[in-house]
Design a protein that fits this description.
It is a single chain. This protein has 3 helices and 8 strands, in the order E-H-E-H-E-E-E-E-E-H-E. The longest helix is centred in the N-terminal third of the chain and has 16 residues. The protein has a 4-stranded parallel β-sheet. A two-stranded antiparallel sheet has the order 4-7. By secondary structure, it is an alpha/beta fold.
Length: about 120
């Protein structure tokens, strides 16, 4: 029997990101771990957050695949604050779901492996 591990991973990936996700999937499989992810291995009629809460409660750990899902050519960290910080190079961000799901995994006291 495989040990279930919740994997936070966007469903729409670039070809390079998909290749990386496959490497992680293969490693999980070789170590007798089962990749569990909403929209990939599991589907539900419940609201997504409700389903994630239930899935994580049945898992023994979590993996966060923080693939870039948004890119801006430049930006400002903490705009209109006392210490704004301009960034003059591309800024990439993962999906907010990575943060939500990592928080849920953490709140269950499970081990987490995060890939940026």
């Amino acid at each position: 029997m495989r040990i279930p591990v919740f994997v936070s991973c966007p469903t729409d990936l670039s070809p390079a990101q998909e290749d990386s996700a496959e490497i992680v999937l293969d490693l999980l499989d070789k170590n007798k771990l089962a990749w569990r992810a909403l929209g990939r291995s599991d589907y539900s009629y419940k609201t997504p957050l409700t389903e994630v809460l239930g899935m994580v409660s049945r898992c023994s750990g979590g993996v966060i695949l923080g693939f870039s899902q948004f890119e801006a050519p430049s930006g400002v960290y903490k705009p209109n604050s006392a210490n704004p910080r301009p960034v003059n190079q591309p800024v990439q961000m993962a999906t907010p779901w990575n943060q939500l799901e990592a928080g849920i995994i953490f709140s269950h006291g499970l081990p987490i492996l995060v890939f940026k």
